[in-house]
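Moderator note: this is an archived Q&A kept for reference. The question asked for a predicted structure of one protein chain; the sequence and the answer are reproduced below.
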Amino acid sequence: RRRVKISTKGRYGLRALVDLASHENEGAVSLLHVAKRQNISLNYLEQVFAALRKAGIVKSQKGAQGGYRLAKSMEEIKLDDVLTVLEGRFNIIEETDIGVRQDAVRWAIQELVWDRINASIWKFLETCTLAELVEQYKELGSSAEYMYYI
């Protein structure tokens, strides 16, 4: 188990998936276009998508109209699927083995605080879908289009 600090791999991976999903009606999406829209290095994005493809989250299409597509619907892709592939399983703190009752205070805090926070984080990640992120992105994007600044 390791501490919670989502790396650029996880953050960029989610951003790129939201971008890809929001352009899914255009067919296969070029990683070059995703990289440009999201200001992410193409080489880095290729590494991220290789892991996502291997995990069955995206699929690649070769040829002139090639690019990437989601391998399943946005509603089926949970955030924990994506982050587990890109980050591995993580926890809020890194605790070494405490020992059954060797340190009662640390043991109590681990069970009553850290384990519950971890469970809440994973429950959220297991229920939140890529579709929800795309919907939120589109709502925020459309409301930003109508903002006027003086």
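Archived answer notes: The chain has six helices and two strands.
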